[in-house]
């Protein structure tokens, strides 16, 4: 089971305030712990929404619309994420509870969401085989 720990943005993260050296070190130790346990898939911080782009689909079958940031509601914006692969929801919660306050100062908020696996979305054996092949290609192919 894969879970994404979504770190919610704050006014500071949206203002481009970088983590303190102490917080950066704490997050690095946490990510190392996840890696040693063999559950870490990815962990990244994101730039502020001022440099973000949203693509919206205002009508079915219509042309996508491009909207440049910044976006106003910091609590609805993602500042970073950690993707883990674990055996259960309970294990995901345990790992999320161990994450240092991602912004410090008692402002951090993490949303934990399970990632859909292909068999949950389709039972079509051809589509499942294509999905598996694509994932294998992505994990072994170096980027140019």
Q: What attributes characterize this protein structure?
A:
single chain; 144 residues; alpha+beta; Alpha-Beta Plaits; four-stranded antiparallel sheet; two-stranded antiparallel sheet; 5 helices; 24% strand; globular
Q: What's the gist of this structure?
A:
By secondary structure, the chain is an alpha+beta fold. The chain has five helices and six strands.
Could you explain the architecture of this structure?
The protein has a single domain, classed as Alpha-Beta Plaits (2-Layer Sandwich), CATH 3.30.70.1060. It is 35% helix and 24% strand. It is built from five helices and six strands, in the order βααββββαβαα. A four-stranded antiparallel β-sheet has the order 2-5-1-6, covered by helices on one side. Strands 3-4 form a two-stranded antiparallel ribbon. Strand 3 (53-56) and strand 4 form a beta hairpin. The two termini are 29 Å apart. The model has no long low-confidence stretch (mean pLDDT 88).
């Amino acid at each position: 089971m894969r879970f994404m720990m979504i770190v919610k943005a704050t006014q500071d993260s949206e203002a481009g305030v970088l983590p303190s050296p102490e917080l950066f070190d704490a997050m690095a130790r946490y990510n190392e712990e996840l890696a040693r346990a063999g559950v870490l898939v990815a962990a990244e911080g994101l730039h502020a929404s001022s440099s973000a782009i949203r693509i919206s689909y205002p009508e079915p079958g219509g042309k996508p619309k491009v909207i440049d940031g910044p976006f106003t509601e910091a609590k609805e914006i993602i500042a970073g994420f950690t993707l883990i692969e674990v055996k259960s929801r309970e294990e995901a919660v345990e790992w999320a509870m161990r994450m240092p306050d991602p912004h410090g100062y008692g402002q951090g908020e993490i949303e934990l969401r399970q990632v859909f696996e292909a068999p949950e979305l389709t039972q079509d054996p051809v589509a499942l085989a294509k999905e598996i092949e694509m994932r294998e290609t992505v994990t072994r192919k170096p980027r140019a």
